[in-house]
Design a protein that fits this description.
The protein has 658 residues and is of the alpha+beta class. The chain has 16 helices and 30 strands. Strands 21, 22, 25, 26, 28, 29 and 30 form a 7-stranded mixed beta sheet that branches. Strand 3 and strand 4 form a beta hairpin. The radius of gyration is 28 Å and the shape is globular. The two termini are 38 Å apart.
């Protein structure tokens, strides 16, 4: 028996096939001196994962094989069989190499203990094991909750977190005044065949700009498992307001497609001489792109914005996954509708044309491709009819669309910084009423937040050296108020070794400082921003920064903080704010930007959303990992949005998949 040592492989990428985290040693054994990989047994425990092979002549293996053959082959079992075969092939590649692999120094820094060409094999396995599924959503006969108009529906994808709790995974766009919406935005989710992934698709009538759905009308939902959708590929079911209570005649249709292509199509489109459709003005045109499904039906894949009162519009550049746009088939038929937007949802068709991606790519050189926009009814009635305008593809190209994993596995380091509120409103740390009071087991809300978030983030940082700061306290030796003091009282080197180091520094600092005030965020945000600005000068995607601020109260330098966030939104940086205690956190919700775009006092908007605020009290009785999942949920998209904004590829980009 020989051992394969794999330290801390990323569980997200491996559990889709292996069903467990490879957290320690992986043992490969043979029977009767043979090394065939005819069957694989996985034994999962907290630390080791044992992989064992059985020779084809093994009586026990033959008996198990016969039992499996007798079972009916349902679509799910066939899919599981395919996935297992793929996993075995990948394992065979690793085991046949006869070497020990090590992944050091973190889960995502792939380094081999022997030769340089072995690490990519493990990384290849990890990336291949991610199975992403896109869900296309459409509804019919939704309830009408608006007076004087139709509902403005939006669909949210939720995944069960156990104990009747649901976590949001993704959501579609909002479609105005429509009871039969076809949502153009796909809902993306990782598929793990070995897990029962309970999903809920909930449809809401949206009447405000807030992302919070609590104040929106519920139009109905549907619960199922992802396995059921994948096995059927297309599911249509009635919507329910609650169990046993139908939402009128409303139905929801879900179409599942596996994402196999990491490329995207980037387009710029304009039009000229479009038909005038409005009595008291020009048309308000927008475009809708459809692809033809296997059953001949047309599926909406993208909808542009509306250009108001313009017969010669130019739409914003957009990017759509090539898998979504045409299933990776450049000759797949596409249909484009140009319509005049009406606020009541009764949009007027201007014209249609058909094409495919191969035709669109003729605009890659910049010369452009033009299509006559044809209205079928007008064409039938008028012999002299030519068109209802011309749509021109100004530019079209296919480029790689990198994910969070592509950047991190490609060498991007995520640097973690902590800022802790030491203002007087926390209360005397010696009093059990204080938020800084250490319970008999040595914890409080501050430490719980640090542990929850830090334990996830630390895996993405190689040196495990984390700067930690406090603010709002009088600091020794002269006890002047500081809004940016090193937790270890070493301003030239504020780094703590690992999350344990931050906790130790916090416990040592707590009895030495005097809690004071006010609650100023901008100094510590600007501190991290200065470091991130230095990293932004690099021409690669090598560094990203996450600042965790834990606070108990209302912010006092709101305008300065808004300006600091707007400035930071142009840098490789995200900000997480955890509010502890029972204070009023309305200002924090403003910084989050969920109720609209955050703007600096000068009126300048954020370049991208980089702030996530979560009140700790919402997770007081929840598992520790729930807090981390919520506060870190937006970081992957924020990281990708920054590097995409800068047009930066991963340091070591993956090979294109087709």
């Amino acid at each position: 028996m020989r051992a394969l040592t794999v330290h801390g492989l990323l569980p997200l990428t491996l559990r889709a096939f292996l069903g467990a985290e490879l957290g320690g040693r992986v043992f490969y054994g043979t029977t009767r001196g043979r090394s065939s990989l005819s069957a694989v047994s996985l034994y999962s425990a907290e630390t080791p994962l044992l992989l064992r092979t059985h020779h084809r002549d093994d009586p026990a293996a033959r008996w198990r094989r016969k039992q499996r053959q007798r079972r009916p082959q349902t679509p799910r079992r066939l899919l599981v069989k395919q996935r297992k075969k793929k996993a075995k092939d990948l394992l065979r590649q690793i085991f046949s190499s006869r070497v020990d692999f090590k992944c050091l120094p973190s889960r995502l820094a792939w380094v081999s203990s022997t030769t340089s060409n072995e690490a990519p094999l493990i990384a290849q396995m990890a990336t291949q094991c991610v199975v992403k599924v896109e869900l296309t959503i459409s509804c019919k006969n939704l309830l009408d909750k608006d007076v004087g108009s139709k509902s403005d529906p939006l669909c949210v994808l939720l995944q069960s977190a156990g104990d009747d709790k649901w976590t949001e995974v993704d959501r579609t766009e909002r479609v105005k005044n429509c009871q039969d919406p076809e949502f153009s935005k796909r809902l993306c989710i990782d598929y793990h065949f070995e897990k029962v992934q309970k999903l809920k698709l909930a449809v809401y009538d949206i009447d405000n700009k807030s992302v919070n759905l609590n104040d929106d009308d519920y139009l109905g939902g549907f619960e199922c498992t992802l396995g059921q959708i994948v096995a059927s590929k297309k599911v249509t079911n009635p919507l329910q307001l609650k169990k046993g209570k139908p939402a009128g005649k409303g139905t929801i249709t879900i179409v599942a497609e596996e994402v196999k292509d990491n490329r995207g199509i980037v387009m710029e489109v304009e039009a000229r001489n479009l038909d005038k459709k409005d009595m008291f003005g020009k048309s308000d045109p927008f475009l809708e792109f459809f692809k033809q499904d296997d059953d001949g039906k047309w599926l909406l894949v993208h909808r542009t914005e509306v250009v108001k009162n313009n017969l010669n519009p130019s739409w914003k550049k957009f990017t759509v996954s090539l898998s979504t746009f045409c299933n990776g088939d450049l000759n797949k038929p596409l249909k484009v509708h140009c319509s005049d937007y009406d606020s009541d949802g009764s949009h007027d068709l201007i014209g249609i044309f058909q094409t495919n991606v191969s035709e669109l790519l003729k605009a890659e050189s910049g010369s452009g491709v033009e299509f006559d926009c044809i209205h079928p009814e007008k064409q039938k009635k008028k012999k002299s009819y030519k068109n209802s305008g011309v749509v021109r593809i100004k530019h079209c190209k296919i480029e790689a669309q990198y994910t969070f994993l592509d950047y991190v596995m490609g060498g991007c380091q995520i640097n973690f910084t902590v800022g802790i509120d030491f203002t007087g409103s926390n209360g005397d740390p010696r009093s059990p009423e204080s938020l800084h009071y250490l319970s008999p087991d040595g914890v409080n809300q501050y430490l719980t937040a640090i542990w929850s978030v830090g334990q996830v983030i630390q895996d993405y940082d190689t040196d495990k050296l984390f700067p930690a700061f406090g603010f709002g306290a009088q600091v020794p030796p002269d006890f002047k108020v500081s809004h940016e003091f090193a937790l270890n009282f070493n301003p030239s080197s504020p780094y703590c070794q690992g999350i344990e180091g931050i906790v130790q520094a916090y416990r040592m600092a707590l009895p030495q400082v005097r809690l004071y005030g006010p609650t100023n965020f901008s100094p510590i945000i600007n501190h991290v921003a200065r470091i991130a600005a230095g990293a932004a000068q690099q021409s690669n995607a090598a560094q990203y920064f996450v600042l965790l601020i834990i606070t108990d109260g209302e912010i006092t330098d709101l305008d300065q903080t808004k300006q600091a966030i707007v400035n930071s939104s142009k840098l490789p940086m995200s900000i997480i704010i955890v509010g502890v205690g029972e204070a009023d956190f309305k200002a924090m919700e403003v910084l989050d930007g969920d109720n609209g775009v955050l703007k600096a006092p000068t009126g300048e908007p954020v370049a991208r959303d980089i702030v996530q605020f979560v009140p700790f009290k919402n997770f007081a009785s929840a598992p520790r990992e729930s807090l981390a999942q919520t506060v870190l949920a937006e970081v992957p998209n924020q990281l990708v949005s920054y590097f995409k904004m800068r047009n930066l590829s991963p340091v070591n980009p993956p090979s294109p998949t087709k």
